[in-house]
Amino acid sequence: MTLQPLLDKLAQCEQDAASRAERLRAEVEGLSANLRETERQLVQLQITRKTVLALADGLTEEPVQQPEMPD
Question: Is 71 domain-assigned?
Fold first, then answer.
């Protein structure tokens, strides 16, 4: 029995796994960039909400009710 077919198959499996790993790394990189942008937008929206509530506090006789927001 020769080992060459087994070694060839092993090399192909290794190459396939390396290709999948590279595609997944690229996908993770893209998802990470999207997450950073979404988190940046979330912070801006939270700041905007706090600013609006602070400004509105002196404009009405009734206290401004703040909606419950998740942390």
Answer: no
**pLDDT score, position 8:** 97
Q: Is residue 2 part of a domain?
A: no
Q: Is the pTM of this model over 0.70?
A: no
* Cα-based angle 62, 63, 67 (whole degrees, multiple of 5): 125
Question: By residue range, what is the domain housing residue 24?
Answer: 8-58
CA distances from 10 to 4, 20, 22 (A): 10, 15, 18
Q: What is the pLDDT of residues 10-50, one digit of tens each?
A: 999 999 999 999 999 999 999 999 999 999 999 999 999 99
Domains in the chain, number:
1
Q: Where are the alpha helices (DSSP H) in the chain?
A: 4-57
